[in-house]
Design a protein that fits this description.
Number of strands: 0
Number of helices: 19
Shape: globular
CATH superfamily: Sodium/glucose cotransporter
Distance between the termini: 72 Å
CATH class: Mainly Alpha
Radius of gyration: 22 Å
Largest sheet: none
Oligomer: single chain
Length: 476
């Protein structure tokens, strides 16, 4: 297992560094020069979108909470499908129209009246929340390596960070997508093979499913966690609310849409991404429920370690190592992509867009992007080493903060011609502050911030746009 796992990490570094040779400019570093094929970008987007949160967080959530986790899977599937079917083509067209490499650059180009404020605010939100998100991926890698090899999680996180930072810093988008494509295949293999073996194990051993589930925690087999009436509706709504964050609000995913060559590649990518997601979420649900049937409620102290537990118990060492690599692949792919987006915002939107006001040598931009990638990665590592929060919790907060700050602004900028720069700023500020206040006030225990933030941000953005347009017309 050790040999295969170390071989996987070395192969990942080698693949990333080999493709890094294609990174010659800032455009290559940020979006791969928009030259990569749709199928690669689709697999990359899925590897990026489904992090430690899916393989460890959601599988652990379902193992601990049961059938009510199905609404999370449905919400995510709806959001991902909407993003690819409805928004991907629009993202590509808008990025091309405004010659934008990043989301902040797109907003500032479309709404130039307050471009400086938009760039600074967007970059701050991206870097702030992505540090938490990347930290969660490092923490997930540390947990997995500890569960598998007994290595202290501290060193597991260090190893994951070093692997990611080596090729992400050097190669940028081109390296990240190349590695993601490989990681995505590993991930879906894990999420398809493992459930199949679990089902075979259950039926070949003639396990009484009903009897096994009778030992599960109360409410495990209820799709509402045993809640009824209004409380049941709240549980379903809160879990479905992951949907909102996918509506254009995730810069690391949108970068794949923006980097598409043409509409044909968008269609190819859409078909691959939706099919991949469907299989993945079915697989995770079966893993969580199947683990309860096979091992009972006390198989692991940390529910988020149920997947590594299954793999090391069901498979021979060499195969378990390959499938565990799929779990670590999810974390690495997400972390590397977020580092890249955060670094690109610092170099492209702050340095080039504000400090140098467009007059920045390409080589200097490329250097700054690489330094920023390294810097954000180190901050995220420090965070991951100093928190004990569950991966699911950290990602949930970050998802609400960034997804529901940007999603309202993206949707309104795409489909409402009365939207203006004041509306963009309002959406971003409202999304940021609402998430922080919502969680600090404990409102997450009733209505999730993933929904509350989106509703408040889009409502205020519409109101401010209408009021400022009216004032502008009166002055004219």
């Amino acid at each position: 297992m050790v040999i295969i796992f170390v071989g996987y990490l070395l192969f990942t570094i080698g693949l990333g560094l080999w493709h890094a040779q294609k990174t010659k400019s800032q455009s290559d570093f940020v979006l791969g020069g928009s030259k990569l094929p749709g199928w690669m970008l689709a697999l990359s987007e899925r590897a990026t979108g489904e992090s430690a949160w899916l393989l460890l967080g959601l599988s652990g959530f379902i193992y601990a909470n049961g059938f009510s986790g199905i609404w999370i899977a449905i919400g995510c599937l709806m959001g991902i499908s909407t993003a690819w079917i409805v928004l991907a083509k629009k993202f590509r067209a808008e990025a091309e129209k405004y010659n934008a490499l990043t989301m902040p650059e797109y907003f500032s180009a479309k709404f130039p009246e307050q471009d400086k404020t938009i760039r600074i605010l967007s970059t701050f939100i991206i870097v702030f929340f992505f540090i938490f998100y990347v930290g969660a991926q490092f923490a997930g890698a540390g947990k997995t390596i500890f569960q598998t090899f007994g290595l202290d999680p501290f060193w597991g996180q260090i190893i994951a960070a070093i692997v990611i930072l080596i090729y992400a810093t050097v190669g940028g988008f081109v390296s990240v997508v190349a590695v993601d494509t490989f990681q995505s295949i590993l991930m879906i293999t894990t999420l398809v093979v493992t459930p199949v073996i679990i089902i075979i194990k259950i039926f070949s051993n003639h396990i009484n499913i009903s009897q096994a589930l009778s030992h599960a925690p109360a409410g495990f087999t209820s799709f509402t966690g045993a809640a009824t009436g209004f409380a049941a509706g709240i549980i379903i709504f809160n879990n479905l609310a992951w949907f909102f964050g996918y509506l254009g609000g995730q810069p690391q995913l949108n970068a794949r849409f923006m980097g598409m060559r043409d509409e044909k590649n968008v269609r190819i990518g859409r078909n691959i991404a939706v099919a991949w997601t469907f299989l993945a979420y079915i697989g995770v649900f079966i893993i969580g429920v199947g683990a309860m049937i096979l091992y009972g409620p006390n198989a692991v102290k940390d529910p988020e370690m149920i997947l590594p537990h299954i793999l090391t118990n069901l498979f021979p060492g060499w195969l378990a190592a390959i499938l565990l690599a799929g779990a670590v692949a999810a974390m690495i792919s997400t972390a590397e992509s977020m580092l890249l987006v955060a670094a690109s915002s610092i170099s492209q939107d702050v340095y080039k867009g504000i400090i140098k006001k467009g007059d920045a040598p390409d080589k200097k931009l490329l250097l700054i992007s690489r330094i920023a990638t390294l810097g954000v990665g180190i901050f995220a590592l420090i965070l991951s080493l100093s928190t004990t929060k569950l991966i699911y919790t950290i990602v949930s907060y970050a998802w609400a903060g960034i997804g529901c700050s940007f999603a309202p602004a993206i949707l309104l900028s795409f489909y409402w011609d009365k939207f203006n720069s004041n509306g963009v700023i309002t959406s971003l500020i409202a999304g940021l502050l609402t998430t922080v206040i919502w969680i600090a006030a404990g409102l997450e225990k009733t209505i999730t911030a993933r929904a509350g933030t989106f509703v408040i941000a889009i409502t205020l953005a519409i109101i401010v746009s209408l009021l400022t347009n009216k004032k502008k017309n009166e002055l004219a």
